[in-house]
């Protein structure tokens, strides 16, 4: 079934190509199959062989379920020392924190550094994860950060201004920093460039000693999830995930 696997990695595909790969059937027989009304898509008889099929369209032929994927959205409380990846040869991955039977088809919707902790989102819905990462979506990401030197109002001002990153040859977007205590702050930003928060604090002469993500947009890390634990997003979280969340 290699052809079927390759086919299903694309976002959409024609019904006849889907059926051909799944049923190993010739085009002439496929036409007869469709003309006879033996194929249903999302509960309705479908005769158009050029119908575009998405990952979450239910396809049934002669009562046999050929595809019945459901979109899945999970949050996980990532511990330190875990790689934000689906596969790694040297370290445990976020995906491996899930029970083996619950991993299939999932990918990460955003990453955290190896030693950073907190909210990571997992899904099998590529369109949803792409929209989460688009700058125009305007989602704030909320982090709690510990540093090695006392924070000051100058840090607040520095974060509110654009910073030049030589490596990427770009300016960062303004971020917000709120001081919680001498060595701890909350940071909100739209972006997620390479080691961005660590590099921003580096500009102010401070080293980040701990970084914990609390929220992505309106999705907040469940306070009852211990490190390494996960749960499905609620319906409300799924529906409001892409709504911009103003910084309070």
What does this 3D model show about the protein?
The structure is a single chain. With about 250 residues, this protein is α+β, with helices and mostly antiparallel strands. The chain has 2 domains: about 70 residues, RNA-binding S4 domain (Structural Genomics Hypothetical 15.5 Kd Protein In mrcA-pckA Intergenic Region, Chain A, Roll); about 170 residues, Pseudouridine synthase (2-Layer Sandwich), CATH 3.30.2350.10. It contains 7 helices and 17 strands. A hairpin with a 2-residue loop joins strand 13 and strand 14. Helix 1 runs antiparallel to helix 2.
In short:
With 248 residues, the protein is α+β, with helices and mostly antiparallel strands.
Can you name the CATH architecture of the largest domain?
A: 2-Layer Sandwich
Query: How does the major sheet shape up?
Result: 9 strands, mixed
Order of helices and strands: HEHHEEEEEEEEHEHEEEEHEEEH
Which regions are unreliable across 5 or more consecutive residues at pLDDT < 50? 1-10
CATH topology of the largest domain: Pseudouridine synthase
* First and last CA, distance: 51 Å
Q: What radius of gyration results from the CA coordinates? A: 23 Å
Average pLDDT confidence is: 88
Helix content: 10-25%
CATH superfamily of the largest domain: Pseudouridine synthase
Proportion of residues in extended strands: 25-35%
Judged by helices, strands and strand pairing, the structural class is: alpha+beta
Helix count from the secondary structure assignment: 7
Total beta strand runs: 17
Number of domains: 2
Q: What is the global morphology?
A: elongated
Report the CATH C-level class of the largest domain. Alpha Beta
Pfam families: PseudoU_synth_2, S4
Keywords: Isomerase, Lyase, RNA-binding
GO molecular function: 16S rRNA pseudouridine(516) synthase activity; lyase activity; RNA binding
Family: Belongs to the pseudouridine synthase RsuA family.
């Amino acid at each position: 079934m290699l052809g079927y696997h390759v086919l299903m990695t694309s976002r959409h595909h024609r019904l006849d190509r889907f059926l051909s790969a799944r049923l190993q059937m010739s085009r002439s027989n496929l036409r007869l199959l469709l003309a006879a009304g033996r194929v249903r898509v999302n509960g309705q008889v479908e005769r158009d062989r050029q119908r575009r099929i998405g990952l979450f369209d239910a396809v049934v032929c002669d009562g046999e379920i050929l595809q019945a994927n459901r979109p899945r959205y999970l949050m996980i409380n990532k511990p330190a020392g875990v790689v934000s990846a689906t596969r790694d040869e040297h370290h445990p991955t976020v995906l491996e924190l899930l029970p083996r039977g619950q991993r299939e088809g999932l990918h990460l919707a955003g990453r955290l550094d190896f030693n950073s902790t907190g909210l990571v989102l997992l899904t099998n819905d590529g369109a949803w994860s792409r929209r989460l990462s688009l700058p125009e979506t305007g989602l704030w990401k909320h982090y709690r950060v510990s540093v090695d030197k006392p924070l000051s109002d100058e840090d607040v001002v520095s974060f509110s201004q654009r910073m030049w990153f030589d490596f990427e040859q770009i300016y960062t977007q303004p971020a917000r920093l709120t001081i919680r205590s001498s060595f701890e702050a909350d940071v909100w930003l739209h972006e997620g460039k390479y080691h961005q928060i660590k590099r921003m604090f580096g500009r102010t002469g401070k080293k980040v000693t701990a970084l914990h993500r609390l929220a992505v947009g309106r999705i907040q890390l469940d306070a009852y999830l211990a490190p390494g634990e996960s749960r499905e997003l609620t319906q409300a979280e799924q529906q409001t995930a892409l709504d911009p969340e103003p910084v309070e």
